[in-house]
Batch of 4 targets.
Target 1
Amino acid sequence: MKKHFFFALLSKKLSGEITIKESANLQRIIEEDEHYKQIAERLTDYFERNRQQLKYGGAAVNVELGHVWHRIALAEQQGFEAVCDYNRQPLRDRFTKSFLLKFAAALIVVLSCGILTFNLLNQEEPLNYSKLTTSDEKVFKTLDDGTRVCLNRGSSIHYNDNFGKKNRKIILLGEAFFDVAKNKDIPLFIQAGDINIEVKGTVFNVKAYQKNDRIEVSLLKGLVAVRGNRGKAGAVLLRPNEKLIALVGTSLNRETFQVVRMPVDKQLQDIKWIQDSLVFKKEKLQDLVLRLEKKYNIRIEIRKEELKNKRFSGTFAAEDLQQALEALKLSYPFTYTINNKLVIIK
């Protein structure tokens, strides 16, 4: 209701029909809501610029009409038939052309304003956010869409309510490890300092502490697009085993971003703050089980010979043993049993 009331008042203001009381109500709404303030500024600026265009267009038409009437006066003084040139474009056609040009210009402006107004009317209301903050301990959290987040000490995130239903947006201050649930229809946007990261389903680490002089994005799996949030420059597409470094205080865009290749062992160093994390890429199962045994303090036997050389890629952070085994099964089917400290895979 407030939204429609706001646009009704703004429309009256732009058309010059607003009353003093209505103007006061409009000003109150703008002062109370930053979202409406931005819309009012954009629409007012847009309409003012196009009013100037119409003004100058109208002036040009008036000058042209003045020339026409001057030639008509000369023709009357000198004798119409002696001056008239039938090879010239008829006055009516020239006037009609000028009128149509003016009308077309005005129509374009009206349609453009209509489209802009329609887009603004259909903008979603500002998102409401929930906050997760850490102090001396790391925190693991699974968001509503299934995205897993590990938040490092002294960090915080704001994430929108109903996460995953219509929007997925996170504002990060500090360091976090993300294992993003895939959703091709609703990409996840992460704002970290002066950069924006767009993902649809991937695993990566972001370090953006306020006191640091740089922001780092380290990608383990999937693809992410990174761009500066103050300009319109194109995004950098980050691939697995790559780290993006953005120096704080510079004009952040794809030309100033530094992208370096990161071997798996160095990436593990980047995320060593994640307690008991396990990252593996195209690793044979017979080698991987040695790391699983250490992580979960168990013993694993592979009873099916062909499974030993099957390769797996993935990241385990907060998953328990059963969740880890189920995740491995998604890459290659097998069965397993868990009996106390012994796991049998076949």
Note: Confidence is low (pLDDT under 50) at residues 54-62, 80-88, 106-111.
Target 2
Amino acid sequence: MVQIEQLAARTPAISVDEILKGFHPSPRFGDVSFTSYRPDPNQPSQAEAVKALEAFGATVGSSDGEGLFKRLFGKKASARAGIYLDGGFGVGKTHLLASLWHSAPGPKAFGTFVEYTNLVGALSFRKTVEALSSYKLVCIDEFELDDPGDTVLMSRLMRELADAGVKLAATSNTLPGSLGEGRFAAVDFQREIQVLADQFDVVRIDGEDFRHRGLPAAPAPLKTDELKHRMQAEFDGQTVAVDDFRGLIDHLAGVHPSRYRKLIDGIDGVVWRDVETITEQAVALRFVVLADRLYDKDVPILASGVPFDKLFSEDMMTGGYMKKYFRAVSRLTALAREGQVHEPS
């Protein structure tokens, strides 16, 4: 028996304290470590990244007075405050970032880029700096600059945290000096982008997407009239959110992305009827956040309609946000595989 709910009927509320308490790795990365990471032997940079992060982790909490020294004497530290993992999709950057977080002493924070910008929106910039300045480590996953406001905001936040002696670690699909390219007039904000770049030592990780490494192609979408039968087979005894795709898209417009994690709280699987190609940028960017939260919680998907590699329009897949969309397609494809484990009877 399946307990059926509907995401489009949920309007979650979340407090500032709940946001702060949520700054830790998702259940998918709740028990990872450097030793559980499996470097591709054909990609030496992966093993080298493990060593670099282990060495960086050893410095966390060992220079508490550095920030004060810099403020009093105006001298720069001998090493940069942060480490920045640059690489393609599915090479294990989040696994390694979470491993660093698990190995480091607290207090510490782990969140996606959008979760930090949401925190500033909830607390204010100054209170966010005050809250995080006492931390030994701040980890920022999926670092991407979507607009000029984010560029200025994160430039200031990273600079002030580094000045306070906080160690920074980030992952992205884009080198820090190239953040914002193709999204807005990045040249007009080069100073802020350079300030960001100056906080980090860059570690490159090469490799192919592990979600596709040696795995079969993504499963084809189901027919809409097959969904109920497959849902009973895949999710017996679990709670499943069943939504018409268009209705879900419309509902997300009224739910702040900071609430998407709570939106899917208690959901073991999702079923989407009649998935269609998204053609509006704002809608697509919201849906990327939902895809990330579903992947964080390892929520399997059953869907009818267009396949996930057609979820975003061709213009989007070649535009300034293409890396976001490719990551979302990769993650949704992985969840769709998990949603079709059993053969239909």
Note: The longest helix spans residues 322-339.
Target 3
Amino acid sequence: MFISEDTLDDALLQAYRGLLNLTGETVVASRGENAEVIGAFIDIKNPRARLSRSETRGKLFSSLGELLWYLSKDNRLDFIAPYVPRYRDETEDGVTVYGGYGPRLFGPGGADQVGNVIKLLGERPSSRRAVIQIFNGCDIATEHREIPCTTTLQFFVRNERVEMVVTMRSNDAYFGLPHDVFCFSMLQEIVARTLNRDVGAYRHFAGSLHLYKERWGDAQHFVNEGYQQQIAMPEMPPGDPWESIAIVLAAEARARGGETFNAGLLGLDNYWADLVRIVQIFFAKGDQSRIACLADQITFKRYRPYILSRL
């Protein structure tokens, strides 16, 4: 399967149509019966169009939560469970998620792979060695409830842009793919801004791209929704983003703890302040007036459809 489109929604439409055509030839895996493509390549030309505009696949809150979990450099269950409850099924000790990406991306002892890639590309922009390894040999040496689906992330600087190639051993097309494209293309833009460059194409390869039988109807509903507006997120502000990321993570902890505060007073660009407001809306839960007030403060109004879903 080869898909080349401008946006995530366009790519999902093509992927779901292709997988639904294979429902007569299914595979029975550990998580159930599924339609599967071996060797799927997805090229998204505009990585900022990383949020689905559909009613069912527009997962702003859970996708942002998963990205912040990665950036927290930790794999604690209590961080991600409010955003993506199904991670509770993957913990082995009730405290952590073995396959969590945070420590694998930002591990100590010289294993800060994100930092190493940024340093390498800053010194040698043409390098082909800027690879982050997520899956490793130890993951199948002993039995685990779940192991990383992502094998590698590779970054290239070409034509003054940072391009990215993601390789997956396994990819759930309905739940996993939209989250993966969001999180990894955001990481792509973070690396690009750190290197004072813009983003190029995002390319995503899955050894197994599959659609579980219980989601065939949902995927068909997405296809039936038809044309989705092609709207991208705003550009990440120029300059090193890591100070802003640290402020956003600290603000996330405050919002999680129930604290009320004004994101506009954190000294952040509107881009990052809006992400804080989205987290605040998520943790406001059933407080309708609070959600409405925060929604009015959002500067990028195209987030509004996702916010309305919280109301």
Note: The chain has a mean pLDDT of 92.
Target 4
Amino acid sequence: MKNLKIKLMTWATACMVVLGACDTDKLADLNIDPNVANEMDPGFVIAYSQLQISGEQFENWRTVLIYQSTMIQHLAALATYWSGDKYLYNQEYSAALWDRAYTGYIKDLVNLIDITDPTVEGQEELVNYHAIARVLKVYSFSRLTDVYGDVPYSEAGKGFADRNFFPSYDPQEFIYKDMLAELEAAHALFDEGAANPGNQDLFYGGNINQWRKFTNSLMLRLGMRLSEVEPATAESWVRKALEGGVFESNADITYIQHTDGPEGINRNGIGEVFNWDGSNFTTDDQGLLSRTFVNWMLERNDPRLEKLSWVRNGGEPRGLPNGYNTNTIQDVDPEFTSIARRDDYSRVNPLFVLRDAPMIFHTYAETEFLKAEAIERGWYAGNAATHYAQGVHAAMKMYGLYHSSLAVSDAAIDTYLAENPYNAAEWQRVLAEQIWAATLFNEYEAYANWRRTGYPVLTPVNYPGNQSNGTIPRRLRYPIGEAANNSEAYNEVLSRQGPDQFMTRMWWDVE
């Protein structure tokens, strides 16, 4: 077998050099011999990439919490720097995911796919490493394209290998269709008889059967994303995913169980934002549960709310309305005469946002709700109500991943299902709302599925100076450096996709 080589860079350089996606000033200072390569364990790269995808404080604070969690009305905040709550534009926050992905795990995964190619003589035994890397790449790009729209894809991550520092942007239609084809190819490659990364795989410990199910479940998610723009294409991929075998229980959930150190990359990035010290959230205590989310749960007598809500003053759950600051909040809450009033509102139960909390990427509950949707669309045989009930049960039991005390009891779930039976006449709303509830803290998916379906019906805010005319943004904006440093590609994408603004819709967002 050939020694595994990280081409055109040392691992230390890869971890330390921080490049803009196309920053010519920094590129001018690069001095890397393109003929030098160092050996690297591919299992280490997989583990490190998984941790990078989970994310550090930087992008979890900005992209996940400040923008997506508030736009989708899981959380709300009074502080104006929580830009997504008020549809304000902060260029650094908007670009956070892009900056982290393209300077980190995208280039690592592109390189790993190359150096584990099992069609190369001597690398045949690396087939599982190669397949895992391809799935991780798809997962990473699905987030990027769902947040920004058209993005560098086919030429991305090749600055070292091909000296291409000015990648073109691929149309989202091309990206989606290629990602789905990549998942199909990766699924066919998995081989339980070949070597695998074992415990270096932080998702599944090298369990190839679970990787197959994750691959198909991701195919189901991405295939369904096309339901409104290309229903026939969506149906073909949804059928293929379901026939190939998807998640079967909560034991299949894709997540990382983080630790509280020794380095930041090992910690849960959302947990780092809240930074619970045993009494308080010490880094950022601004994000509270949204009134929209709390009221939705209250109306349904949802047993998850008592697990989620922490009211410092010991009162009943109370959600903070989105779109207000410390002065205007008195328009809807006249008692909010001092900041101490915040203690009457619901914070997130600290057990969900510890530094060693799990980061959940893909759930069995979501798969069950999408199965029900496929049945309603006539794309799959079965009973939609059964899959709805199984999805609800899985979503409520899933809280036990955070702490055993948080899992909802079977009796409480049965009561909820009795009080909130499946409504086939409104299946689109019912299933989309359940996905919204189940994807709290996975705001990438919550935001994307809301744009696809239009549910739940959210009430936009119209904060002074907002950048979306008082409507919920449909995307985040590209880094400002792209216009200057990659101008040809940037201008071309604007001519195709539309202005680089919050309200420009991406290809699949036609709801």
Note: The chain is about 45% helix and 5% strand.
